[in-house]
Amino acid sequence: GRLAVLISGGGSNLRALLDACEDPEYGCEVVLVIADRHGCAGIDHAAEAGIDTAVLAVTDFPSREEWDQALASRLTESSPDLVVSAGFLKILGSAVLSAFPGLIVNTHNSLLPSFPGIHGPRDALDYGVKIAGATLFVVDEGMDTGQILAQCAVEVLEDDTEEVLLERIKAAERAQLVRTVGSMMRDGWRVEGRRAFLNARP
Ligand code: GRF
């Protein structure tokens, strides 16, 4: 499967995917990495690995719509089988969503529908839950609202700080992302109403 990856940050999820792609058995290839801001460490890493990269910052465009349009065209050029939003902090607009209907997944560092938004682990800690985790879901127009493809849980320990919990979640999250994307590309998936099924064809 051809993967296009969207990032905003360090790109540890991207790195995990790139590592997995080294193994031919994994059956996937990262064909494009796009960042929504300048200076993401993940972009340099991808460029060094010889992957096609682009930085499309909203502030470089006259409007949000034009940014979304540019993102859609750049993605379309690389003809991905799946767009993986891996720590991408912008909500995708209608141009991108309609160019890849049901073909964009996002990984989030909480057990949705609890704690959507950019502070999942902190909000989980503040709430006092004993189990936290990560969710891979199909992107729709909402924020962290799409159909859930996979979830993994980690324990919240008594002396956890936000940083420690975040790292525990991220380790599980990376493994889940690699495993689930591989399964989707190999064995397909299907969405029916609110539910998503792995190892299934539409
Ligand atoms: C991930 O934990 C993701 O859930 C959140 O941001 C983090 C991205 O990390 N939205 P990285 O850039 O892949 O290291």
Strand content: 15-25%
- Biggest β-sheet: strands ordered side by side in the sheet: 3-2-1-4-5-6-7
Helix-strand category? alpha/beta
The number of E-state strands comes to 9
* Oligomer designation: single chain
Low-confidence stretches: none
CATH topology of the largest domain: Rossmann fold
* Name of the CATH class of the largest domain: Alpha Beta
Domain tally: 2
Number of helices: 6
Major sheet size, sense and barrel closure: 7 strands, mixed
Q: Superfamily at the CATH H level of the largest domain? A: Formyl transferase, N-terminal domain
Globally, the shape reads globular
Name the helicity range.
25-40%
Bound compounds, each kind once, are: 5-O-phosphono-beta-D-ribofuranosylamine
Order of helices and strands: EHEHEHEHEHEEHEE
Distance between the termini: 17 Å
